[in-house]
């Protein structure tokens, strides 16, 4: 396996795993959905500020590494290429979901007064949590695809190496 493929796939897998784990935490933290309005709005606004700064370069790096891994996986065979490409499409889907569905809700929440959330704030929170659950599923699926690509490529490399050992060598006279 080429060094660039190894590095790009490892980077893509590590970053996608961190992303998937981060978004999964919100799903498995039921206390967030039970927080009272003032506390939740304060939390939401702080998270929006942090994620707004950190996620664009993080996800662009993740997607860039996955693009490189996907392109280089083509030479390793269809299964590894398909798994990397599926991961790439799933990551792009998480970004599209975030920008189209979640960011508008974040902008609304950023305008709220935490001391007095508007009537119906919990409905917007629930819509955001529903979209976030979908984003977590997509991110976890992307992570699983990258792990699968590595496993498929590893199996292929092992098969290639074992078949090379079984090839009879021409004896010299």
Characterization of the model:
Helix content is 84%, strand content 0%. By secondary structure, the chain is mainly alpha-helical.
Compute the separation of the termini in Å.
35 Å
Q: SSE string, helix = H, strand = E? A: HHHHH
**Judging from the principal axes of the Cα atoms, what is the shape?**
elongated
Counting DSSP H or I runs of 4 or more residues, the number of helices is 5
Strand content: under 5%
Structural class: mainly alpha
| Largest pleated sheet | none
Tally the structural domains.
1
Low-confidence stretches: none
Give the helix level as a range of percent.
Answer: over 70%
Quick check: average pLDDT? Answer: 90
Q: Would you summarize the structure shown here?
A:
The chain has about 170 residues and is an all-alpha fold. The chain has helices at about 5-30, 30-35, 35-75, 80-110, 120-165. The longest helix is centred in the last third of the chain and has 45 residues, at about 120-165.
Features:
173 residues, mainly alpha, 5 helices, elongated, transmembrane, Anthrone_oxy
Sequence-ordered SSE layout with sheet pairings:
Elements: H1 3-28, H2 30-34, H3 37-73, H4 78-110, H5 121-165
